[in-house]
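#lab-general

N.A. 3:47 PM
ok so I finally got the sequence cleaned up, no stray characters, all 368 residues accounted for. can someone with queue access submit it? mine expired

B.Y. 3:52 PM
send it over

N.A. 3:53 PM
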Amino acid sequence: MLFPLTMQAMEIKESLQKALQKMNISGYSDIQEKAMPVIEEGKDVLIQSPTGSGKTIAALLPLLNRLEPQGKGTHFPIILLLSPTRELALQTADTVRELLFYTEGFRTVLLTGGVDMNRQVKAYHHGADIVIATPARLLDHIRRHTFKPKKLETLIIDEADEMMKMGFMEDVQSVITALPSHQTVVMSATFPEDLKSIAESILNNPVMIENEEEQVLKQNISVKTYTVKEKAKLDLLFSLLEKQNQKENKTDKTIIFCNTRKTADFVNKELNRRHFPSASIHSDMDSQERKEIMAEFRKEGTLLCATDVLGRGIDIKEVTRVILYDLPDTKEALLHRIGRGSRDGRASIAILFLKPSEKDKLSWLDSI
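B.Y. 4:20 PM
back already:
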């Protein structure tokens, strides 16, 4: 029996319902209930909602629901999703393919850096209905005329606040100028003033959808804090991990967040030296290496030392604990690190290491 994922003015196709079942999605989140009918109608939408609240499916499901097959031959892009990082783009492409698992006739392509351009052009020769891309690489395709947007209907800009923070908005706006008239969906966990003016320039009479009540710490995540001097952090980390190893379930995953690549590599080295199998991941690695590390962690890994390359949107099942070895500089970064846990609805814990001088940052927890 298919679960009745229907709502006013929108009925989900049977193939998509089956895919949602396979993904163990048994109902809609609040932000999905609010956003999906509006997106289905073709309106421009600005979604502001915390990490883990279901923004990606809120945007994709109604668009895939109305997508019509293009038949044989070259497929022109109908849906374009721009992502700030290759890792997040990879994850979004996986989500699209999961949603289309029981649907035939559609092609999905990933256009990101870290892949030989000529090889990517050849792989994209027959086009795609859904394109997930990073802005700079998509601009390369636009300049080469290998991305042909003449049938494009919808642009999704994912993690817009992070896109702006990383300096990609100029590329995004360059992409927009190359597109025909289209629907635009902007998704963001936060909505700083600078983003408001950008949104006004790229959206046409948008519907603003907010979900401030669905806070991170209401998502079955508990928080524990330790005040610890810098030189004592490693010993505290080892003590916590040893206690975890004594528990029955040793398949649960832990992400250890560090502020710098140097610290992530150092902590990883020390963990392995003390016989805690782990890996580290950060931006000072080529994309293929990061892809392999992520695949291994998703499949068999239990410990991963990471910088904020994993702080945004990355969805890893079975992460039941997040350890903030270093505290970030902003409340928003804290929110996103903590939000890596409980992604599949299970209870998780966030453990914060605070240096004595950082106690004032405890107030951040009150609003997330």
